[in-house]
Amino acid sequence: MTSPEDRTDSEHDVGFDEQALYIVVRKAVEDGILGATGKLVQIGVSVLIVWFGMLSAFSEQSIIASVGWVVVAILGLYLIATALEIIPSVRDWF
Fold first, then answer.
1. pTM assigned to the model
2. Mean pLDDT of all residues belonging to the chain
3. Which of 69, 66, 72 minimizes the C-alpha distance to 45?
4. What is the secondary structure of 40-89 as a DSSP string?
5. How far is it, in rounded angstroms, from Cα 73 to Cα 26?
6. Do 46 and 80 touch, CB atoms closer than 8 A?
7. What whole-number distance in Å separates Cα of residue 90 and Cα of residue 29?
């Protein structure tokens, strides 16, 4: 008979429930896919906001309206930067 020190790792009973492990791994993969999809959608919408803001800013006749659209474009750039975690979101400031 072998002593506990002579056993290999494959002989130890680790006590994992395979069904519970499957559920945990499945949920983790699902969360990862949803997180990545959400991040791509957020970046896509932010790029559209920047594009629309700059397009509108250059087509406006009024300086005040152009400045307003530039602010919208800057907001879109901020959303892109927070999506890519370059800068912290407003939620993290407080």
1. 0.69
2. 86
3. 72
4. HHHHHHHHHHHHHHHHHHHH-SSHHHHHHHHHHHHHHHHHHHHHTTSS--
5. 39
6. yes
7. 28
